[in-house]
Fold:
Amino acid sequence: MAAHDDTAADITVGCQIPNDDASQYIASLRGRRIRLFVLGERVEEPVDHPLVRPSINAMAATYQLAVDEPELATAQSSLSGVRINRFLHITESAEDVVMQNRMQRRLGQATGTCFQRCVGMDAFNSLFSVTYEIDATHGTSYHERLKRFLRHCQRLNLVVGGAMTDPKGDRSRGPSEQEDPDLYTRIVERREDGIVVRGAKAHQTGCVNSHWIIVMPTIRLRPEDRDYAVCAAIPVDDPGLTFIYGRQSCDTRALEDGNIDVGNAEFSGQEALIVIEDVFVPWDRVLMCGETEFVAPLVERFTAYHRRSYVCKTGVGDVLIGAAATIADYNGVSRASHVRDKLVEMSHLNETIYSAGIAASHESFRTAAGNYEPDGLLANVCKHNVTRFPYEMARLAQDLAGGLMVTCPSEKDLASPEVGAVLKKYLKGRADVTTEDRVRMLRLIENMTLGRNAVGYLTESLHGAGSPQAQRIQIARQMEIETKKKLAKRLARIEDSGEGD
Ligand code: SF4
Ligand code: FE
Structure:
């Protein structure tokens, strides 16, 4: 690919507006010709759509935090020589990796949902080392292209989504064995000036709220899968992309008047299916093209970053613990010892998730390319905890909330001239707390454990960044069982035959 190198050219497609803060970011999303479908209808302006807007607000929080707490959410980049949003930073020390986790917890606390921007951060950092290593082996120039693209994104403070998950079709077959070859994203044409890409990416977090996506392979590949080994940056307003919005539980409550029944009126996550219909990508935005042997390292490194990024859920967990404690207050039972114990249990689970994630970041090591990567084993343990503990925390929060959380009449009934007064009388908890506040807190717990933000807090915790079995495979690879057997045999004074039995 070196013959096609044109790394000096400017990037003239996609967003060209610098986004310094949340309002500039939101303004930058207006007027794009993005092909988006929500509930079966084409949406011309997602910024004003009531189902989409809360997810834009959550992404915008990543901009606001950089203004409000620059020590936490910005970093000095030696790549561009300026202070940039931390989500666009290539980690230059283990402390940088740790700071990502601290920022993620803070944003989880601020939004109570998935704020969507970590996927690009983790994609950039894993591609940084992998492109360096591909170039060292093949004499390509992917690493320079990546740095150039990254500088552009840093300069304009853009959102870049890492698009990894393919639809995958028949799971017992590899990409090139599928009846329909498009079920994994692939190169359908190699041209003098670039490549043409076709396929789809599923469950894409924050993609509509992004300026760019970087497609990456989802699964380790064999040499015959060469066309599937593709990484490429595509602007979201490319006419060849179609976005079909994912439904979320209770999502249409956002179409109703009022702000009580939605539970968390301001913030939500976002997932969509991206269909990629023969999109042309010039060589300067191609970051992998056929190097199948580097796909496994890319997937492994991306997941090492991303699985410890899931400490985001501990910030959301902080909100849920606060909501559970508040509803216990409102119900007048905060002094009961079992209530206290349930809050302790929730906190223990939440901090156990955080412990493994932050430890993975502290144990980061320097890659050959010079950036820092978290410890893979601890990162997988973090994510594996995330597949379980939020469910138990949700159960405990529902236990403390009581059944009214799911039997409570609507906001419209509370406001009704005919039944509003009796509802307020009979749904009252402690005398000094209004019924409306009690209902608001119940709706927040409902939102996080059954409603639209349960998508992020529960099912995304289970399947995002890989389902539980994917972490168990990685843990099995890295648990060094033979070394541990030797430790045991030595103390038991058993002579080691060296055969690993
Ligand atoms: Fe970030 Fe968490 Fe959302 Fe992933 S699930 S994008 S780590 S907030
Ligand atoms: Fe995710």
Remarks:
- The first helix runs from residue 22 to 28.
- The chain is about 45% helix and 15% strand.
- The pocket of iron/sulfur cluster (ligand 1) is lined by residues 114-116, 118-119, 205, 309-310, 312, 460, 464 (CB under 6 Å).
